[in-house]
Amino acid sequence: MIKNYDLKLFIKLSFDIMEKLMTTTLEDSYSIVCNVLGEALEWDYVEIWLRHPQRQTLYKSSIFYAANEIMSQFSNNSEDFEFAYGEGVPGKTWEAKKSIWYDDIRNIDYFIRKTDAEKIGLTTCFSLPIKAYDHVDAVLMFFNKEVKVEDELMLDLLNLVAARLGAIIVKSQIEEEIRDLKESSKTASSNTFLTIARVFSFRDPYTVSHQNLVTKLAIELARKLHLSDEEIHDIQIASMLHDIGKIGVPMEILSKPNKLSVEEFDLVKSHARIGANIVEDLPCSRNVKLMVLEHHERLDGSGYPDKKKGDQIYIGSQLIAVADVVSAMLENRPYRSALKLSEVKDELTKYSGIKYNQVIVGHTLEILDQIH
Ligand SMILES: [Fe+2]
């Protein structure tokens, strides 16, 4: 017969476990709980049954604690079991929604692994539900060869651990929901901006292919610069919307085959600020607005609308600037034919580090070499 535990040990153990469970993932938490509780409370074997989200059954997790080799065998022999609600010890615990203590598990009719338990000589079993809100999400099962007596302190500790595990499950479920929500809102916002960009493109036939090429090139460059997923998403939106301000520039100026007057060119240049004002009202990040505003700025201050220089220009804007210039040079325009690829490369090389970011130009030349 195992002696009752003392209060001091239990308080220390509670603190140790709670501290360990503070920053872990759900899977690690199960592993910590099985190992720490099994060892400290001197159970011979601890296992965990998890609720299958689709089949609505409890299946045995690969995580377990075994005091010795024989107990590990007990785990291997139960790998294929699955219990429905109210079925077997795990299912009964699920149904009861509270812990169940069995002085001798071998006498329990619904204990299916009786043969193995008898072979090993298991007696005491304690079954503990892990609840997230009021739903049983998992069942912890403790087994012992020697008869163990029910100990109030031990049960308090186990229930405390179960409550903490339940809170971790709720936390991970909430985190998963937030991740899904973020993902779906990201897709929804991308689709909205894509629609806006398409509507805008009906006005100017040059815009469709230009938007697509700038977006494709900008995303590839962003990946080469190892920007974060968030930044790449912003760059994608900004690439689609970068010229949206042209909606405020008369079509006869945009499609004019001859050289523009200074006044006309000033009107064309205003598209950067008009675009930033339009984007200001859309639900997108500050960086998207910045990229729309700055996509014609140049490192040497020769760009527009604010003649910003060097690091004053956001890296995403520097990237879209290069993608925009490359795309524009490769396309036919009302006032000139498309440039040859060699001419595009020469132009980029000539102004690398002067107008355009040297690293971005380097990556762009690599991409151009690959596709042609
Ligand atoms: Fe532009």
Please give the domain count: 2
* Assembly form of the protein: single chain
Strand order of the largest sheet: 3-2-1-6-5-4
Tell me the CATH topology of the largest domain. Answer: Hypothetical protein af1432
User: Which stretches of 5+ consecutive residues score pLDDT under 50?
Assistant: none
**What compounds sit in this structure?**
fe (ii) ion
Radius of gyration: 33 Å
Query: What fraction strand?
Result: 5-15%
Main sheet makeup: 6 strands, antiparallel
CATH top level of the largest domain is Mainly Alpha
> In which range does the helix fraction lie?
55-70%
Order of helices and strands: HHEEHEHEHEEHHHHHHHHHH
- Just name the CATH architecture of the largest domain: Orthogonal Bundle
CATH superfamily (homologous) name of the largest domain:
Hypothetical protein af1432
- Span of the ends, CA to CA: 81 Å
Task: Walk me through this protein's architecture.
This protein is α+β, with helices and mostly antiparallel strands and 372 residues long. The chain has 2 domains: 7-173, 2-Layer Sandwich (Beta-Lactamase), CATH 3.30.450; 180-371, Hypothetical protein af1432 (Orthogonal Bundle), CATH 1.10.3210. The protein contains 15 helices and 6 strands. It has helices spanning 7-21, 26-40, 69-76, 88-96, 114-120, 152-201, 205-224, 229-241, 251-254, 262-269, 271-280, 286-294, 315-330, 341-350, 358-371; strands at 45-51, 58-66, 82-83, 100-102, 125-132, 135-143. It has a 6-stranded antiparallel beta sheet. β1 and β2 form a beta hairpin. The chain starts with 6 loop residues before the first helix and ends with a helix.
